[in-house]
Structures are given as structure tokens and as C-alpha cells.
Amino acid sequence: MGRAYEVRKASIQKTGAIKAKTYSTFAKEIYLQAKGNPDLDTNVNLRRIVEKAKKSQVPSEIINRAIDKAKGMGGEDYKEVIYEGFGPGASTLIIKTLTDNVNRTVGYVRAAFNKVNKSLGVTNSVAYNYDHLAVVSFKYDNDEEVLMALLDEAIEPVEFETNEGVITISVNPNDISKTKDVLEKLIPNIDYEVDEVGMYAKDLVTLEGEDKELFIRLYNLLDEIEDVSEIYHNVNIDL
């Protein structure tokens, strides 16, 4: 199987298992998408993130509050900040955060690395070993029809796979909105099993013994930080 199938199977190590953190992350993402245009009818990206939030059972009041803040009815101003770091052994991590206080967030992230005697890296010290991709997967029984529909709109998937009736497509993130337009026209009631834009390690490493224990500890420390929304890494492990 290729990388896309492995990504689907692992659900790209998405954080946010705790409901409170899931709600907080979606609220920030909705806020970011709503800034400048909080109208669900005309802002396609906002409408899609709201649909994802509802699918994850985020309460309507949280969704509406985030949109209201984007209209200027709240004092927060969130931004996305990405950190790169080196873990134990040959492990690397990319940490996506949504924060209204960069100094606070970098302090928490740096402290997590310090606790396992590892360090943050500079921009692109890790990212060059990852692919930035958008991935969607869904059930459909005619993969050839889907592929031809994409190619007809000049969308060339990075990867296109079918496994047990589930189609998984990886595309350049710049093409994801157009890709969804094609899919949703072809399959009006499409139900995405995976709908993510993330960083995918080009090569995976396996850790053993103390390195594995330290990596798990580092991952959990980062996952506990409220501002952290996603953690990507190159370790062959289920977390």
C-alpha cells in the first residue's frame, strides 16, 4: 500500500481526543476561516470547516460564538504558528498551533522538548522531510469515474488509491477546494472518512527502548497543550 492508504489508516495522528480540546481547536479554526467573510453562504472554506465541526459533534453555540468573534464581537485574535523539533533517536516532529499569544505557546512547546532533553529547530530544519498534502477518503464504487472527473478539471492527484471500496486521494493543498467541488458535484451526499490537510513524513523510523518511551512522553506533553491542534511526526507508531 502507498502513503495515502497508510495516512487514512492512521488518520494522520490527529490530536484532540478530549472533547474540550476538540471544541477549542474547531472554534479557533472556524474563527480563522470566518475572518474577513463570516457568511456561510459565500465563504466555502468556512462552510466546510463548520460541516466538519458538526460531524465531530461540536455544539452549535461554540460554532456560532466563533463566527461572532470573527465579526468583531470578541477580543481574541488567533493565528496559526508552526513549530519544528527533533525528538529522541531519529524522530522529528511538526507541531501546528492556533494561538492568541505566541510567547505563551512557544514557551509551552519549548518546555515539552526540554523535559526530554530535546530541542526545537528553526524553520524548515524538519519540514523538508515532509510532504504538505490534502487527503480525502470516502466510499464510492467507481474509482475510474472519480479519477476521470478530476483529470477533466485539470486536477492531478499526488496519489489515488482504492481499498475495500474506499477511495483515498492526496492532492496539493492548493487544489483541495477545487477537488471537493468536483467530488461533491459527482457525489452529492459524499461522506468524507478523512478530510485533512497535513504534513506527511517522506520516510518513517522505528524507535525502541528508551527512545520510544521518551518519544511517547514528548508526544503526550505536546498533546496536553491547549494551543496545539495537530502533531505530525515520522515515527512508525500508533498513538
Adjacency order of strands in the biggest sheet: 3-1-2-8
Q: Give the helix level as a range of percent.
A: 40-55%
Largest sheet: 4 strands, antiparallel
- Helix/strand order, N-terminal first: HHHHEEHEEHEEHEHE
Distance between the termini: 21 Å
Query: Into how many domains do the coordinates divide?
Result: 3
Instruction: Please give the number of β-strands.
Output: 8
Description:
By secondary structure, the chain is an alpha+beta fold. It has three domains: 3-73, Arc Repressor Mutant, subunit A (Orthogonal Bundle), CATH 1.10.10; 79-128 and 201-233, Alpha-Beta Plaits, CATH 3.30.70.980; 130-200, YebC, transcriptional regulation domain (Alpha-Beta Plaits, 2-Layer Sandwich). Helices cover 42% and strands 23% of the residues. The protein is built from eight helices and eight strands; from the N terminus they run H-H-H-H-E-E-H-E-E-H-E-E-H-E-H-E. The strands form two sheets. It has a four-stranded antiparallel β-sheet. Strands 5-6-4-7 form a four-stranded antiparallel β-sheet, with helices on one face. Strand 1 and strand 2 (92-99) form a beta hairpin. Helix 2 packs antiparallel against helix 3 and helix 2 (19-34) runs parallel beside helix 4. The two termini are 21 Å apart.
